[in-house]
Design a protein that fits this description.
Largest sheet: 4 strands, mixed
Structural class: alpha+beta
Order of helices and strands: EHEHEEHHHHH
Distance between the termini: 22 Å
Strand content: 5-15%
Bound molecules: glutathione
Number of helices: 7
Radius of gyration: 17 Å
Strand order of the largest sheet: 2-1-3-4
Length: 198
């Protein structure tokens, strides 16, 4: 049985929980106290030298960090990862988009607004994070116009990767009311069998 080292409040960790529950795979969840240095202990760094959750423990010797790599590992040969080579590459395209153009703005704005005090100096980053985050949401909204899922005609791990922080973007101060296609897609994800709230 796989073990997930994660922090429940993290969207990157929620991706793994959501996929495992949708797949109906048994797993053990080990909560890591990241905000108090839990991901920087020697024992944790031996699993992931980058000091970040999530980490998937595959067996006694093998550990896999990076949320989107874990999604690919778990989803291969399942209904969440296409068989078609081009569609696989499109899934990766959206997952790289998530890590480079979406998560660094939407997740970071959420972190600053949800977890740091109102007078913290990092609050000054919010305007720029909103500017770039809205650019990512605009790209998603355009893509979702006239289609149900990011790739092909079924939900894939591209949807899971993008759902993780989009569904809680309001916590980072983003106004999602101007994105009807994104809102319809968020509802569609929630209707899937095995869906769990963060
Ligand atoms: N690219 C990584 C990002 C992981 C990440 O940023 N994890 C955060 C929580 S969301 C973390 O563990 N931060 C602790 C630290 O940097 O010390 C992924 O997708 O897994």
């Amino acid at each position: 049985m796989a073990t997930v080292f994660g922090m429940s409040a993290s969207g990157n960790c929620y991706k793994i929980k959501l996929l495992l529950d949708m797949l109906g795979m048994p797993y053990e969840w080990r909560e890591v106290d990241v905000l108090n240095g839990g991901s920087r202990t020697p024992a944790f760094l031996a699993m992931n030298p980058n000091g970040k959750v999530p980490v998937l423990q595959i067996d006694s010797q093998r550990f896999l960090p990076e949320s989107n790599a874990i999604l690919v590992y778990l989803a291969e040969a399942s209904r969440f990862y296409p068989a078609d080579k081009f569609e696989c590459a499109q899934v990766l395209q959206w997952m790289f988009f998530e890590q480079y153009s979406h998560e660094p703005y939407i997740a970071v704005a959420r972190f600053i607004k949800k977890f740091l005090p109102a007078e913290h100096p990092r609050q000054s980053e919010i305007p720029r994070l909103h500017e770039r985050g809205y650019q990512a949401l605009d790209v998603m909204e355009k893509h979702l116009a006239g289609r149900e899922w990011f790739v092909g005609s079924e939900m894939t791990i591209a949807d899971i990767a993008l759902y993780a922080y989009t569904h809680d973007a309001a916590a980072g101060g983003f106004d999602l009311s101007r994105y009807p296609f994104i809102n319809a897609w968020l509802q569609r994800v929630k209707m899937q069998p095995g869906y769990v709230q963060q």
